[in-house]
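Lab notebook, page 48
Experiment: co-folding of the full assembly
Goal: obtain a model of how the components sit together before planning crosslinking
Operator: M.T.
Materials (sequences as entered):
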Amino acid sequence: MKRIGFLLIAVVTVAGIVAHMAHASGQSDGDSSPIYGVKIPAGYRDWQLIAVNQLLFAGKGEQLRAQLGNDIAIKAFKEGTLPFPDGAMIAAIHWTRVPSEANNKVLDVPSPGTQSFVIGSLVNVQFMVKDSKKYAATGGWGFADFTDEKPGDKALHETCFPCHVPAKDRDYVYTQYAR
Amino acid sequence: MKRIGFLLIAVVTVAGIVAHMAHASGQSDGDSSPIYGVKIPAGYRDWQLIAVNQLLFAGKGEQLRAQLGNDIAIKAFKEGTLPFPDGAMIAAIHWTRVPSEANNKVLDVPSPGTQSFVIGSLVNVQFMVKDSKKYAATGGWGFADFTDEKPGDKALHETCFPCHVPAKDRDYVYTQYAR
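Observation: model returned without errors.
Model output:
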């Protein structure tokens, strides 16, 4: 068991590194994600808000993030329905995080020393699309990662599902609805 | 001019401090904001996302924030319409920011040392409601700040408009639509 555990971690680690290198160097040619065939869902930016979060990558920048859901996903989040029904779609939008000197100046009056950070520019957009039959091998979810509206390559998309496995008890979804 | 400038800053500063103390110590009794009479708009949590941001208050906690807009506001943001038309409403939802050990563990594989922060709990919700006649004295905007669904007091609400004056060229709205 220990050896299998180590191998699994090694495989995921190598896949992660390879995916990161591939992501930095090139994209696939099509308009749908490799492995899963997920395209950018029309109108996803108008979906409702699930939650927001923030990432500080060690030496690789800072991000503000928002997760949006289509009507089926939002209904499931609100009602606590698990697994998510077929047709549920989740978008994760990642932006750079930049300090706002303008905000700091104003906020300094009621709250001296406050640091405000706002969105800089779009980094990438990720999607999870539920189809329990089509994506039976990956928990019922198809994955996609787009940068400049182009899908990342196969190596990148091979990392999606393994990273979501630890959230299996929440149907592979990390984000929780922000009330 | 210098004296007027100093006086203005002094008034805003004192108002800010008083408002903060009042906010910490008590709420008004009604279900609408003092001065403006703004109630919590029904269904605001389902409005579309304008943007997200983050605040680090000096010694007073950390927040993740999202701004949502009703259909009229979102259309104006997307089309760059200024001033915002009557009926536009903006909600600013403020949550505490907490580190996510679960996320860090997963993200550590592809990106060692990554720090992930997610939403803790709801702090307060603020609203801006556009009615150019009713709120002519405050740039056409009515303001409201609710904690636990109860509006803050008069002193708190006296600070809303002065803080938004520096954004006059964007019709008193700081948030910009995140694309």
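Interpretation: The two ends of chain A are 41 Å apart (CA to CA).
Next step: discuss with group before ordering constructs.
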